[in-house]
Amino acid sequence: MKPWVIGNWKQNPKSIKVAQALISDLLRTDNRSLLSQCQMMVIPSTVHLAKVADTIANLEPNLSHGDSATLIVKAAVADNPLLRLGGQDISALSAQVGAYTGDCSAAQLKDCGAAWVLIGHSERRQYYNEEEKVLQKKLQNALSEQLGVIFCVGETETQYESGDTLAVITKQLEVLTSSLPNELSQDLANRIIVAYEPVWAIGTGKVPTVEEVSTTHLAIKDLLTGFNSQITDPIVIYGGSVNADNAAQFAQAKGVDGALVGGASLKADKFLAIAQAFVK
Ligand code: PGA
Question: Is there an atom of ligand 1 within 6 Å of 86 CB?
Answer without folding.
Answer: no
